[in-house]
Amino acid sequence: MANEKEEKDSKKTTEKSEKKNLEKDEKKSKKLNKKSKKDELAKIKEDLEKKEEELADCKSLTLRQQADFENYKKFSEKQKSELIKYANEELITNLLDCYEDLERVTENSQTEEDAIEATKLIYKKMTKVLEKEGLKVIPAKGEKFDPYKHEALLVTDSDEYENNEIIDELMKGYTLKDKVIKYSKVNVCKK
Predict the structure, then answer these.
(1) Does the pTM exceed 0.85?
(2) Domain boundaries defined on the chain
(3) Does domain 136-191 have CATH number 2.30.22.10?
């Protein structure tokens, strides 16, 4: 019986020992789980902080770019208005010579013939300046009527001209670099 009792005690001790070991293992496991969860949580927090920093940098960059764009827009508008304001500067500079020549003719001409000759020279000079800028006279007399270049002020029935042919140019028309800036005023043959 003593053996049985010893065996039972030994069995109980073994069971207790195993139970204690199991409890220890569970505690260790829980500690490890807590530790790994804490580590995981710490890593997530660290990642979140990095992402928040990146987001703040992106916001800052976006705000700077937006401010730069606004400054560029203001600069471009100012530059455009300056360009428009002084767009004719070169043309006016070129025409100033003709203007001054006219002034000299009016002040210094001794005779009417001198004034006429000087005026003709100034007219040629002014024509060259305007042609250089891209101004061209629209051909009219003897041409077919083109409503995109000519404006019919008079309509005449004539056997000497074909239908829609321009009989006479009443006022010259002009193009500036292929854009009509003044239509020719014409008399057109209509049958």
Answers:
(1) no
(2) 136-191
(3) yes
